[in-house]
Amino acid sequence: MDFEIRTDRTKPQGRKKLAREREAYSRLMQQGVGNGEACRIVGIDVRTGRKWRNGRHAYGNRKALAPINTAAAPCGPSRYLGEEDRIHIADRLREKATIRAIAAELGRSPSTVSREIRRNRHPGSGAYRPHAAQARADARRPRPKPGKISQSPELRGFIQHHLDKKWSPEQICQALRAQFPERPEMHVVHETVYQALYVQGRGELRRELASALRTGRARRVPHRHAATRRPRFAHPMVMISERPAEAEDRALPGHWEGDLIIGKDGASAIGTLVERATRYVMLLHLPNGRTAEQVRDALVETVQTLPAHLVRSLTWDQGAEMAAHGSFTLATHVPVYFCDPASPWQRGSNENTNGLLRQYFPKGTDLSAHTQEHLAAVAAELNGRPRKTLGWQTPAERLHKLLAA
Q: Is-above-0.70 flag for pTM?
């Protein structure tokens, strides 16, 4: 290579100083090198490479950027089919060869060859002609492409009209297919509508139409990648897979499951604790709210009323109310284990108990109105019910035997 790899990326170079890198990137792309590898060799970000390869619309004070010229790319083992590949496909089709045989000879996937024939054959006769197919492929390849919505006033008007009626983009796209079944130029996918609303510089749909979407957003919210996702809590969680096996078989008492039942408009809550071996229930009084600190203080106060050998662990879901689980463990020496997301069965005893408690605390009611004494009375009533799973003993009887032992 007659260029140097730029290793120092800490100093901004500006647009003009990247001319050599852009030229080197263009040569690599013409040689069939992929975008990621070309960017690594030249020393640029992959997003910059994509911008150079595909071009950029003009918007605001920024000028349009033409895509790099890749027409001179050789026909070797490139990502794209070349003219020699298309000549080979045409020759083998005349010899009645199968799609899979042609793909094996070219070292391609059968779906690549099948899609090539379907997209680039003659629209009238259906014959596959390699030079015409190459011309069609070259015509489709330049970027950026004009938007489909911007090219059709009829399509744009249909979409705008239904957005004004509060239809979702997906509903609009289905209506287009139903109303114009024989007109593929009137068919779009819902992502095309979102792009026309959100992407700067397109101007295909009125920006104020974004307020008609159910989210009401005027711009798209980026999604974080899994690798860059922030931790759920400041103190690392210990997952339920690391909980001792003795908690799983319920043979040893002292392993508890916890959760909150929520009142009207999410403004009030009651904490629930269930011991796995005895199904003994304890309720947390949270009259002033359900912040992490309030839940932690109520848990500490409740746990300290029990003998140490009856509090070995606590299992909870990943609710924000347990953000202070680290300080709870420091105060009580009780480890907290967290369930996997959307896995309520991992706290089955607690989920069942919460259903029973709804007889006393219906949904949509203000739970802060209940006193500590009332919560204790409800817990005592539940603990006095005989349970089939306990051989028709009550949770209170089972716990009393453990305390006596």
A: no
